[in-house]
Amino acid sequence: MPPSVEEFSRTARAWLEANAEYRTGGNEEKEMVWGEGDFSVSVFHSLSFADEQALLNKAKAWTQAKAEHGYHAITQPVEYGGLGLTREHSRAFAKLESLFVTPTGHETHSVTVGLIAPTINVFGTQQQKDDFIGRFLATKELACQLFSEPGAGSDLASLACRADRDGDEWVLNGQKVWSSGAQFSEWGELIARSDVDVVKHKGMTAFIIPMNLPGIEIRPIKQMSGGSSFNEVFFNDVRIPDSMRLGPVGEGWKVALTTLGFERDHSGDGGGGGSRVGGSWRQILATARAMGVTSDPIIRQELAKAYSHFRIEGFVNRRASDLRRAGAPAGPEGSLGKLMWTEGMTYISDVISKILGATLIADSGEWGTFAWGEHVLGAPGYRIAGGSDETQRNIIGERVLGLPGEPRVDKDSAWKDTRR
Predict the structure, then answer these.
(1) Is 326 exposed, middle or buried (0-12, 13-18, 19+ CB in 10 A)?
(2) Are residues 75 and 55 in the same domain?
C-alpha cells in the first residue's frame, strides 16, 4: 500500500531537514532575504571549467543523495530507482524541497534526467533501458545532445553528420555544434544521416554513444556572457556497435522530436517559487523592494504583469508535465510552454532594467544588482535554443490551429538533392 501524500510529506520533510538547511531559517518562509546566500539569475553559466565542474558535481551529489531514497524519481518505476508514486507525491516533494538550500542547477544535469533518460524509455531496447535509465536519473553518469550542426539548427532535418553502416558497426563522420555540457558528459544522444537517397526527414538514425571514443574531439565555444558551456564536437571515423542505435534505422527524426518535446517542457524550471534558470519571481520582487521602487505605480504594474506571466506559464508547463507523466507523447504544449518561457525571460530583462537603471551595468559591488547583467546577456540565446521561437509558432499554428503548413520546397526531394 503506497503512503498517502501526507505520510510521504512528513517522511520527506524529516529527510530534508536532516540533509539540508532551510532557506531563511523559518520553516515556511518563502520570501528572499536580501543579501543572504548566493544570487544567481544567469541563463548560461559564466564559469571556468573547474568551477563549472564543481557546480555540476554538487548537483550530482544532491541527486545521488536523493536517489538513495528514491526522491530523485518519485513517479518513476521502482526498477529504475524510483518510487512509483503519483504526481501529487512528486509535487509535494518539490514544494518541500523549494524551502531548502539546494545546489544550483545545471543544463547538463537537466538534459540527462529530463530529456535523454525519458527518450531512452520511449525508444530504447530493454537492455538500453536497463543500462541507462537508472544511471541517468540518478546522474551517476551524464549525457548531452548531439543534434545541431553549423548548417542545421532550427532546420534540424537538414543535418549532414554521417552514420554509415559497416556490418554490425556504424562509422560516424561530421560535426555537431552548440552541444551543451559535452565536455562534462560520458554519453551523448546523436542524430546522424544514415541514408542520403530518401527525403531528409526519413534518412536519419539515432544513437546513444560514449563520448570518449577514439575520433571524437570536443572544442568549447566562448560565449558573450563569459562561460564556455557550449561546444563543437567533431567525429572522425568513429566506430560504434549497432547495439548503440536508439530506435529503428531511419527513425532518427521521431527520436529527435521526442527529445525536443521533453526539452520544451519547462515544468521543472520553477513556476515563480524557488530556483529557476534565468531568475525567479522571488528574485525580481526582492530586487524591486531593495531598490525601493515597489510604491511606483508603473513598476507595480510591471511587477503584476510579471507575476501573472509566471503563474500562467507554470500552469501551462504543469499540463505538459502531467501529459508526459501519464505516458502521452510529447505534444504542442511543450512548444507553447517554451514560447512562454522565452517571452518571460525577455520580459524579465525589460522589468529588471527599469528597476535597476544604471545599477544594472555598473558593478557597484552591491549584492543582487550587477548579477542581473548575466540574465540580460543570456536570455536572447533561448529564443534559438531548443528550437527557435519561429519554429515553435509554426508547430502551434500547424498542429493546434490547423493552419496550412510552412512552404517547404525540398519536402519531397532526396537529401542528396537538396541545397545546403
Answers:
(1) exposed
(2) yes
